[in-house]
Write a structure and sequence with these properties.
about 170 residues; alpha/beta; Nucleotidyltransferase, domain 5; five-stranded mixed sheet; globular; nucleic acid binding; RNaseH_sf
Length: about 170
C-alpha cells in the first residue's frame, strides 16, 4: 500500500504544497498572496483566508495518510517582520487542518546539511544544495518542482524535502 502525503512549506507571501508518495511527486502548487493595502492583523487575516481557501480546494481530491508541515523556528533576529506572521500562519493552517493527521517538522532537522537525520546530510552547504536538486529531479518526473519559477521553487523544494524526511521516518523508503 502506498503512503501518500501532502507537504506544506507555509509562508505568508508564498506557500508551497506538494502531494507525493514514496515513488514520485504527484502534484505541486504554490499559493501566492500579494501584499494588501493596509497593515496589521486585518491584512494578515485576508492573506491567510486566501491561503486556506486555495490549500483546502487543492487538497480536496487528494487522498492522504498525513499532512507534513514545516514548523516555525524562531532564530531570535531583531526587527524581523516574520516574528509574528510566520507562527501565526502556522497556527492558522493548523486550525484549517483540524481532523487531519498533521506532522510538524522543524526546518533545521530536515534541511540542514549538518543534521544527522537530514536527507541533505553532507560536508558542505553547496553539496547539500546539489543533493536537493538531484533528489527533486529523481522524484519529480513531471518537473512540477524542478521547472517552477525561482520565486516559488524554494517553497516547493522545502515542502518536498519535508515529505521525503517523513517517508524515511515512517519506513516507506
Amino acid at each position: 500500500m502506498r503512503v501518500r502525503i501532502i507537504c506544506i512549506d507555509p509562508g505568508i507571501a508564498s506557500t508551497g504544497l506538494v502531494y507525493m508518495d514514496e515513488l514520485r511527486v504527484l502534484s505541486a502548487k504554490t499559493v501566492k498572496t500579494a501584499q494588501p493595502k493596509g497593515a496589521g492583523l486585518d491584512a494578515l487575516h485576508k492573506r491567510l483566508r486566501t491561503i486556506e481557501a486555495a490549500m483546502v480546494a487543492w487538497m480536496a481530491d487528494k487522498p492522504r495518510d498525513a499532512v507534513v508541515i514545516e514548523d516555525f523556528v524562531h532564530y531570535g533576529t531583531r526587527n524581523n517582520c516574520f516574528t509574528y506572521k510566520t507562527p501565526y500562519t502556522c497556527g492558522y493552517l493548523d486550525k484549517a487542518l483540524d481532523g487531519e493527521n498533521v506532522v510538524w517538522q522543524d526546518a533545521p532537522t530536515v534541511l540542514s546539511h549538518r543534521s544527522k537525520k537530514s536527507p541533505l546530510r553532507s560536508a558542505t552547504r553547496q553539496d547539500a544544495q546539489a543533493m536537493a536538486v538531484k533528489l527533486v529531479r529523481d522524484y519529480d518526473g513531471g518537473h512540477m518542482i524542478a521547472d517552477a519559477p525561482k520565486t516559488t521553487a524554494e517553497h516547493l523544494y522545502s515542502a518536498f524535502l519535508h515529505g521525503l524526511y517523513y517517508l524515511r521516518e515512517v519506513g516507506a523508503l
